[in-house]
Please model this.
Amino acid sequence: MRKLLENMKKKQEGFTLIELIIVIAILAIIAAIAVPNILGAVDNSRKSTDVANAKIILNAAAQVKAKDASLADAAGNYTINASGVNAVTGTNAGVAAFATALQKELNNAGITAKYKNAGAFTLAINGTDNTMTVSTSIGQVAPNPDSDYDQD
Model:
């Protein structure tokens, strides 16, 4: 029995301090490489979300115009944010009706920009050629994104 106890005392198992330090150093190197890549992926996903939401807004505005001919001339600027669609400026009386119809077309969903906390989307409808653009405080998102919204 005595020999068994002496053998158990001699067989100490575990890691040495140097082995633990090496493992921690390797983990620190991996973390230093991975964290910037993860943050970049998060930014790219926020950009993609904003571009997709801007396209949804453009499509919804086009559908509203196509469904109701009286709303075809709804030139003005509209803010789309968490509280819904608000007409900011407009050149005719149909602007408020268009804002209401657009809100309904978007299923009463409040949409906010995610990239760099840009906040609200702004839908601008040009009165002369009826073109539509969607932008945020950072820049234009759709149909032709500014450099800030270019996909990496």
